[in-house]
Amino acid sequence: MTMEGMMDKAPTLLEIKAPIRICGDIHGQYQDLLRLFEYGGYPPSANYLFLRDYVDRGRQSLETICLLLAYKIRHPDKIYLLRGNHEDAKINRIYGFYDECKRRFNVRLWKIFTDCFNCFPVAALIDEKILCMHGGLSPELEHLGQIKEIQRPKIPDSGLLCDLLWSDPDARVGQIVIEVVEDGYEFFAKRKLVTIFSAPNYGGEFDNAGALLSVDESLVCSFEILKPVLPASTSKLILKKPPKAGKI
Fold first, then answer.
1. Residue at 5 is within a domain
2. 8 Å CB contact between 203 and 57
3. Percentage of residues in the chain having pLDDT higher than 90
4. 84 within some domain
5. Does 100 fall in a domain?
6. pLDDT in tens, 86-96
7. pLDDT of residue 237
8. How much of the chain is helix, strand and coil, in % rounded to 5?
9. What radius of gyration do the chain's Cα atoms show?
């Protein structure tokens, strides 16, 4: 079965069990993805839910998405990948992924990835209690059955699917807001909502931390923080390579 075929068979709303580790935006920051696995454990030693935005802006979008898809193929019940707004050809055509594919390989590869992204689920429900998505809640969402009825792959300019992928919660209504979360996570609505951002030093332009959210069997949530690394010290980081296939 192809990767596209595997993802296409997945429901639009995933229903998964704790314990699980949840990651937010990665944006092609491959070394930081490896740091996340160093903190949380490489699959299959831990279960992961990635919420979105694997590509664009970072320098190694291809390495990032290829590693995640390889783990998905190798351990389909240990790693789950949701669709974000950058898993859309209209967006990653502009913000770097298209150019990276074209420069390093060819446009055909980009098209293969976009076809695969079109099949990704858009939300996940953990133990019938914790609802996860890339963006935020929609005023059109009245029951979870609506998510299950979403037709892939097209992302409309408004409506439920658009809100799930684009509507990040924010208390600063009416202000211009940059999507980076300074501490890696931020609570809203009296701690009923939380945003997770997992790309420290976002794009090399911010001094933000990244976060990994761990949900245990009792649905108790805790955070592990990836502190920003100064560019001058990046070369001094010693990271393990992903385990070889025979050791995964």
1. no
2. yes
3. 61
4. yes
5. yes
6. 998 999 999 99
7. 54
8. 30, 20, 50
9. 17
Query: How many domains is the chain built from?
Result: 1
Neighbour-count burial of 128, counting CB atoms closer than 10 A to its CB (0-12 exposed, 13-18 middle, 19+ buried): exposed
Task: Note if 86 is an active site residue.
Answer: yes
Average pLDDT for the chain: 86
What confidence score (pLDDT) does residue 77 get? Answer: 96
Pairing of strands 20-23, 48-50: parallel
pLDDT band at 4; cut points 50, 70, 90: low
- Do the domain assignments include residue 131? yes
CATH number at residue 99: 3.60.21.10
CA nearest to 70, candidates 59, 81, 57: 81
75, 86, 134, 143: which is the annotated catalytic residue?
A: 86
Angular region, 231: left φ>0, alpha ψ -120 to 50, beta rest? alpha
pLDDT of 85? 87
Contact 200, 230 (CB under 8 A): no
State which residues form the domain around 208: 11-226
